Amino acid sequence: MRWFVEVSTIGDSAAPGRVCVEAAQWQAALESARRLLKDDSPLSKFSIEVLDEGYRAVNPALRTRYVVRRAPPNAVLTDSAHIRASSIPPPMLMVVVLSVSSVLTPYVYVASDV
């Protein structure tokens, strides 16, 4: 069975990237897509939602949303050679320096919310 997996960054209005993978079930399709996109964060941290026509998985650490839907049997499969860096949004990070002093070590706060 073929599956479309749309990938987007939470809070970004850009169009999502999309891959097509072969898998027996939607969970395996999500894993295949994540493997193609080099996302190796633990799935146990994801929130999963059942939609009327598919599934939504959210990785809160990377602020990445995956929407998995069935694809037609003749949909063209995506391989790693066809993944362009610009086709999938990168995770968003913001770094803020809270304190800088010649005596104190600077404190750095890293947030995933821009």
How would you describe this structure to a colleague?
Strand 1 (2-9) and strand 2 form a beta hairpin. This protein is mainly β. The N and C termini lie far apart (37 Å). The strands form 2 sheets. Strands 2-1-5-4-3 form a 5-stranded antiparallel sheet. It has one helix at residues 26-36; strands at residues 2-9, 17-22, 47-51, 54-59, 64-70, 94-99, 107-111. It is built from 1 helix and 7 strands; from the N terminus they run E-E-H-E-E-E-E-E. The chain is 10% helix and 38% strand. Mean pLDDT is 79; it is low at 89-114. It has one domain (2-111). The longest helix is centred in the N-terminal third of the chain and has 11 residues, at 26-36.
